[in-house]
Design a protein that fits this description.
This protein is of the alpha/beta class. The chain contains 8 helices and 7 strands. The chain has one domain: CBS-domain (Roll), CATH 3.10.580. The chain has a 4-stranded mixed sheet with strand order 1-7-6-5. It has a 3-stranded mixed sheet with strand order 2-3-4.
Length: 189
């Protein structure tokens, strides 16, 4: 994609929602709402970076992490489905066999609200972290191959930013529209 680097689209760490690892899920959700309102973002953050006591980014808390931990039976399912084979019959059987989402939402929510973020945050492997100078193509490949999003971006081993799928999509969409305009102009000639 025209030599676009991930650093050109990433959100710097200092501008991203961040919490300490001992923060509760409830506190993390309040912070996301407050920062979304305070910063008046057109696309508020739905996930949050997790830092250690020294301010070093050690992981991320995403929507998916929260959903999975709200229904602990997913851990049994995920460990029994190592090949990630998900046909419709299998998914329906798992939903029934593991009694997923069997409790009322109020019970599920209250059981997770005081859980510490460090218990459920996602710690990406080094292979899941891109370098600032990696191409946008590499980021797209990572998303398609199932890397847990958003992507963390680093420079010299330190997390420097976050690359959200929605931001990448907007760039791709704009590129497609630009290509269409160029093609239309050539047809008119």
């Amino acid at each position: 994609m025209e030599n676009i680097k991930v650093k050109d689209l990433m959100i710097p760490v200092k501008e991203y929602s961040r919490i300490k690892k001992h923060t509760t899920i409830h506190q993390a959700m309040l912070k996301l709402i407050k920062e979304g309102n305070d910063k008046n973002l057109s696309h508020p953050h739905r996930d949050i970076l997790v830092e250690d006591e020294n301010g070093k980014t050690i992981g991320k808390l995403t929507i998916l992490d929260i959903f999975i931990h709200m229904e602990p039976s997913y851990f049994k399912f995920l460990s029994s489905n190592k090949n990630n084979f998900l046909d419709r019959k299998f998914v329906q059987r798992v939903f029934k066999d593991f009694n997923l989402w069997d409790e009322p939402m109020t019970t599920i929510c209250s059981s997770i609200s005081e859980v510490k973020v460090e218990k459920i945050m996602y710690k990406p492997a080094l292979s899941e972290i891109l370098d600032e100078d990696d191409s946008l193509d590499k980021a797209l490949h990572s998303y398609i191959m199932g890397i847990h999003q958003p992507l963390l971006i680093q420079k010299n081993g330190t997390i420097t930013g976050v690359l959200r799928l929605g931001d990448v999509f907007e760039k791709v969409r704009d590129s497609i529209l630009t290509c269409a305009i160029k093609t239309t102009d050539k047809i008119k000639e």
